[in-house]
Amino acid sequence: MSVKDDVIKAMKENGKPMSAGEVEKATGIDRKEIDKAFKELKAEGAIVSPVRCKWEPAD
Prior knowledge:
Elements: H1 3-14, H2 20-27, H3 31-44, E1 47-51, E2 54-57
Antiparallel strand pairs: 1-2
Helix pairs in contact: 2-3
């Protein structure tokens, strides 16, 4: 499973928008890897930001 998959999975399991720090705590993945995954997921339109600095999977 890729870092992006792990990030999306953690967001879906949490059920609410998450910051990169919250994803880091939930997954144990390094923050730099999470930031990179966030950037790629944003570019793909796979995550959206309903609240400033927090992200959730796009519908």
